[in-house]
Design a protein that fits this description.
Helix content: over 70%
Order of helices and strands: HH
Structural class: mainly alpha
Distance between the termini: 84 Å
Shape: elongated
Number of strands: 0
Number of domains: 2
Largest sheet: none
Oligomer: single chain
Radius of gyration: 29 Å
């Protein structure tokens, strides 16, 4: 039974130590400014729309190509 309590005590100490180390590391982080976050967010949004539109066009071309091939194969005797 005492072994159980020792494990719980050790686990609690490890958790506290982990939280202390995490807090210390977060103080060393170089957080981006509002302008940088806004700029990178804008780049991501524009990229998503660009690639979405690009893949939409590629999908239409691929669909029309496969439809053409299926119609050509179906028309043959």
């Amino acid at each position: 039974m005492t072994d159980f309590f020792e494990k719980v005590k050790r686990s609690f100490r490890n958790t506290i130590e982990f939280l202390k180390d995490t807090r210390k590391e977060l103080k060393n982080v170089s957080w981006p400014g509002r302008r940088e976050v806004t700029g990178t967010t804008l780049v991501v949004i524009v990229s998503v729309f660009f690639f979405g539109f690009f893949l939409f066009i590629v999908d239409i071309i691929a669909k029309n190509g496969t439809d053409y091939i299926y119609r050509a194969l179906r028309a043959q005797p």
